[in-house]
């Protein structure tokens, strides 16, 4: 038993190989020759200028675009190419290595600038690809899902266009160490033409090369721009058509008799409350705290104004009807009383002694014409008063039942004109 224990310990110790030696022993002879003496902590061309890293991408999917958080989530295949003279070997075929061997090689420290959350897919293994060519060119590809912030201008929502970016930079190597470039220009990013998004359509995309300037230096930067146009058909069916129908429904009260007070009040209050609910529901998918006055807010405000105006129209009509009925019962001295009342109120801001005496005379005898002729100030006040009465007469409705007739024509006409101006402005300007 002691002999077996001793032999097992010797066998176990013989299996304990250092990690680096273990990896090198299981590699093929060609890879062992390449890795021998390789220092992954030093970049290629360490003493001979910067290393050029070419990049290309495939957009696998754009899962969500959030206006509340102002970001989008995308799954991308990121490919990077560079040349490392230390990895040259004889032959005419490339070597495809296990993705886990990337830890033995130098790779660029690329990161996504505006990324909020990112992760590398690891089912069933880490989604990495490493391929070495005989001339020392290295192809390194990974599949990642990232949530990237995108500043959005929602003033024309839902007829807006958003331009989002995906920015790639080097974290530690400045432009003296690493240079980034797109391998095929604008064609370096593929996959957007086949994407099917729920609310958007990809209209245009292009790439650019720039530099990021920080306190620590200037760093290489690649930017991918893509323009998203929102599909408005959903919002037309969900918001615009119901709001238009509510406005039309509020006009039904113009054809209901003015004596049917409960019916007209019921239609007005119901449409106002329904429009309020529709306005609140339209804002649930948008940021709560923002300074944007969106196009949909403008339209819903217009519709709410027309609905509320229809309710006020009946209030004015009903008031004019009651006022007309009560005015028939007033005595013939109503006009002099009105004149004396106007003069009493006017005396509060015209404080001359002559006018105060005239006011007292008119209040005691409103129809005294001699006092009016004797004092020139009184004649001037009377002329001003007549002009004011002419202005007030323009707003006087002789027959309140004609108000509904005017509303039947003016409300639809003004709503159509405002709609034309609204759609022309937000679609073409």
TrEMBL record:
<dbReference type="InterPro" id="IPR038050">
    <property type="entry name" value="Neuro_actylchol_rec"/>
</dbReference>
<keyword id="KW-0869">Chloride channel</keyword>
<dbReference type="GO" id="GO:0034707">
    <property type="term" value="C:chloride channel complex"/>
</dbReference>
<dbReference type="GO" id="GO:0004890">
    <property type="term" value="F:GABA-A receptor activity"/>
</dbReference>
<keyword id="KW-1015">Disulfide bond</keyword>
<dbReference type="Pfam" id="PF02932">
    <property type="entry name" value="Neur_chan_memb"/>
</dbReference>
<comment type="similarity">
    <text>Belongs to the ligand-gated ion channel (TC 1.A.9) family. Gamma-aminobutyric acid receptor (TC 1.A.9.5) subfamily. GABRP sub-subfamily.</text>
</comment>
<keyword id="KW-0472">Membrane</keyword>
<feature type="transmembrane region" description="Helical">
    <location>
        <begin position="298"/>
        <end position="316"/>
    </location>
</feature>
<keyword id="KW-1133">Transmembrane helix</keyword>
<dbReference type="GO" id="GO:0016324">
    <property type="term" value="C:apical plasma membrane"/>
</dbReference>
<keyword id="KW-0770">Synapse</keyword>
<dbReference type="InterPro" id="IPR036734">
    <property type="entry name" value="Neur_chan_lig-bd_sf"/>
</dbReference>
<keyword id="KW-0732">Signal</keyword>
<dbReference type="GO" id="GO:0097060">
    <property type="term" value="C:synaptic membrane"/>
</dbReference>
<feature type="domain" description="Neurotransmitter-gated ion-channel ligand-binding">
    <location>
        <begin position="31"/>
        <end position="231"/>
    </location>
</feature>
<comment type="function">
    <text>Pi subunit of the heteropentameric ligand-gated chloride channel gated by gamma-aminobutyric acid (GABA). GABA-gated chloride channels, also named GABA(A) receptors (GABAAR), consist of five subunits arranged around a central pore and contain GABA active binding site(s) located at the alpha and beta subunit interfaces. When activated by GABA, GABAARs selectively allow the flow of chloride anions across the cell membrane down their electrochemical gradient. Pi-containing GABAARs are mostly located in peripheral tissues.</text>
</comment>
<keyword id="KW-0325">Glycoprotein</keyword>
<keyword id="KW-0407">Ion channel</keyword>
<dbReference type="GO" id="GO:0022851">
    <property type="term" value="F:GABA-gated chloride ion channel activity"/>
</dbReference>
<dbReference type="InterPro" id="IPR006028">
    <property type="entry name" value="GABAA/Glycine_rcpt"/>
</dbReference>
<feature type="transmembrane region" description="Helical">
    <location>
        <begin position="409"/>
        <end position="428"/>
    </location>
</feature>
<dbReference type="InterPro" id="IPR006201">
    <property type="entry name" value="Neur_channel"/>
</dbReference>
<dbReference type="InterPro" id="IPR036719">
    <property type="entry name" value="Neuro-gated_channel_TM_sf"/>
</dbReference>
<keyword id="KW-1003">Cell membrane</keyword>
<dbReference type="Pfam" id="PF02931">
    <property type="entry name" value="Neur_chan_LBD"/>
</dbReference>
<comment type="subunit">
    <text>Heteropentamer, formed by a combination of alpha (GABRA1-6), beta (GABRB1-3), gamma (GABRG1-3), delta (GABRD), epsilon (GABRE), rho (GABRR1-3), pi (GABRP) and theta (GABRQ) chains, each subunit exhibiting distinct physiological and pharmacological properties.</text>
</comment>
<keyword id="KW-0406">Ion transport</keyword>
<dbReference type="InterPro" id="IPR006202">
    <property type="entry name" value="Neur_chan_lig-bd"/>
</dbReference>
<feature type="transmembrane region" description="Helical">
    <location>
        <begin position="262"/>
        <end position="286"/>
    </location>
</feature>
<dbReference type="InterPro" id="IPR006029">
    <property type="entry name" value="Neurotrans-gated_channel_TM"/>
</dbReference>
<keyword id="KW-0813">Transport</keyword>
<feature type="transmembrane region" description="Helical">
    <location>
        <begin position="232"/>
        <end position="256"/>
    </location>
</feature>
<protein>
    <recommendedName>
        <fullName>Gamma-aminobutyric acid receptor subunit pi</fullName>
    </recommendedName>
</protein>
<keyword id="KW-0868">Chloride</keyword>
<dbReference type="InterPro" id="IPR018000">
    <property type="entry name" value="Neurotransmitter_ion_chnl_CS"/>
</dbReference>
<keyword id="KW-0812">Transmembrane</keyword>
<feature type="domain" description="Neurotransmitter-gated ion-channel transmembrane">
    <location>
        <begin position="239"/>
        <end position="331"/>
    </location>
</feature>
